[in-house]
Write a structure and sequence with these properties.
Order of helices and strands: HHHHHH
Number of strands: 0
Distance between the termini: 49 Å
Radius of gyration: 19 Å
Number of helices: 6
């Protein structure tokens, strides 16, 4: 008689979590946002006027934060409350991973003066927008 083994791998729960939060689509949206920001930053000739980057530095983090915010939606809050393992560490890890991915890609997308409209400003704006999005998802619900 053979010993009974699990029919699924240990990462099966992680795969289900990623699919339930639409993380593959969110990652694709974040990469698309960074690509769009890079194309827009390249087409804007900021050598004559560095303030041309203002709309890009403001709108790209908001679009990325909106994509991250949609991944916070849960289909059944009751399932998360009655789960055997708490969902907060997993949700925090997924929020930090997506924010780190977005910060890295958006920081690379914006060349230019680091003090005025460069990568640090983009990361700062993204952190603020994601913070507001996460707070709003906590208070009013993500979906």
């Amino acid at each position: 008689m053979r010993p009974r083994t699990a029919a699924y791998s240990p990462t099966y729960g992680l795969v289900l979590y990623c699919r339930s939060r639409a993380l593959p689509l969110t990652v694709a949206t974040l990469l698309g946002t960074a690509l769009l920001a890079a194309v827009c930053a390249h087409r804007l000739n900021a050598s004559t006027d560095p303030f041309r980057h203002v709309p890009l530095v403001v709108l790209a983090p908001i679009l990325a934060a909106a994509a991250i915010g949609t991944s916070l939606r849960q289909h059944s809050a009751e399932l998360d409350r009655t789960a055997a393992r708490p969902a907060r560490p997993r949700r925090l890890a997924h929020l930090l991973a997506l924010t780190t991915l977005a910060a890295g890609t958006l920081a690379l997308a914006v060349p230019g003066h680091t003090q005025e409209f460069g990568a640090p400003v983009m990361v700062r704006n993204l952190a603020g927008a994601v913070g507001i999005t996460a707070a709003a998802a906590t208070v009013i619900g993500p979906g």
